[in-house]
Design a protein that fits this description.
The chain is mainly α and 245 residues long. It has helices at 8-15, 23-37, 41-54, 59-71, 75-88, 93-105, 111-121, 126-138, 142-151, 160-172, 176-189, 194-206, 210-221, 228-240. The protein has 14 helices and no strands.
Length: 245
Amino acid sequence: MTITRNLALVILLLAFPLRDFAQGQEAQIQAITVALQANELSRAVELTRAALKEFPSNAQLWAMQGAAYAGQGQNKQALDSFRAALQISPDYIPALQGAIQIEFNDSSTAATPHLKRLLRLRPADQTSHGMLAVLEYQQGNCAAAVVQFEKAGTLFDSKPDALHAHATCLVKLKQLDKAVGVFQRALALNPDDGRERHLLAALQLMAHQPQNALVTLQPLLQSGNADAATLELAATAHEVSKDTP
């Protein structure tokens, strides 16, 4: 979810052209497009500056300038350009996506309203749901974060940190059974991680699933060198199951 020098945004800019350009605008946009596709970023910036002097109300030109700046790593200038495009056309998807990428990478809450607007336009966009989930989690808004994590589908299935964030919010909301399911997905990514097994077993005990906790701990218990934390969790699980003398 970062800005890259291959300018993937250029494809989006071409896919969502604004209509009714004068012939002069079309020629300038074509020249800028060629410069962007050739990775001639400095030239693309120069061309957009010149074009914007003539057509300052053209959102596509501002967004293309943002893409050029982003490709150079000049994120402040890129963000200013994307925001200028959004002032002209608030629903212009390439400008929304460009601004969101930069704001999200900075963990800025400014990305939140942009993501919500984008999701109104593209409600099935799992990446946008996932980005919004992370931002809501970072702000401590667990109820909102959980909704977005669920709408992100399988986006985070290979991301342990995101799965932990999702499960943590579920625990705070006292949705323990759901939290167990998410932690199981995290453990599946690294089944040899003893800490992950401890976390899942502890959560299963909280969710009144002592037998499942014992199953989770079994590989550690069978290893022959189970540590004190493992033995304590196992003992608690046996006790809750009333499986002790």
